[in-house]
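Dear Dr. H.,

I hope your travels went smoothly. While you were away I took the liberty of generating a structure for the chain from your last submission, since the lab meeting agenda had it listed for discussion. I wanted you to have the full record in hand beforehand rather than looking at slides cold. The sequence, exactly as received, is reproduced here:
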Amino acid sequence: MKQYLDIIVPRGGQGLIDRVSAEAQVPVIKHLHGICHVYVDDAADVDKAVSVAFNAKTQRYGTCNTMETLLVAASIAPRLLPGLAEMYRREGVELRGCPATRDIISGVAVATEEDWRTEYLAPVLSIRVVTGIDEAVEHIQTFGSGHTDSIITEDLGRARRFLREVDSSSVMVNASTRFADGFEYGLGAEIGISTDKLHVRGPVGLEGLTSQKYVVIGDGHVRR
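The corresponding predicted structure, in token form, is as follows:
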């Protein structure tokens, strides 16, 4: 029906999106995976970090803007992780961590490289302790899906660097990844979310899908 359809925006699971992308004969706006990260910088306010990291994972599990990996700077990890881990466990969240995480929190399963690449859409969270913002950005660039990533920090310079260097459709400072939503962004009804750079990127509203038509009326005008 390509004579009737200009574009398709599939909303659903990966199987649906993969099939539509493979078979469609018109452009497709898709986001596929939402492997979202929260990075807690060593200049973070601990209370803010706990609140954001807890909300980003537990507010709703089965959405593409839910945090799947928590990155924590090594110098702040011993103060942050024990209490936050207990909050997650009370909510029934399974924790999987790197060796440094498992040294700080007991009873955490081993995180594999596959975990860093996985969109759980479930009460499962992978945690990695990193040396700082360099390693955090490198991890996101390697394993992220370009959906939504957030930094928790009181350091303006690091916040601006994170916003500049992380190439995702939504990049945040001191905010939950769950805010990456068309309604929250004031777009009205959200039609989709795109991690592609063209035609529209991020939450897609009606304006983003509206094409333009230029009407030129002349009276013998010529371009010289």
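Two observations you may find useful: Helices lie at 14-23, 46-58, 77-90, 99-104, 113-116, 133-143, 156-165. The radius of gyration is 20 Å.

With kind regards,
E. W.
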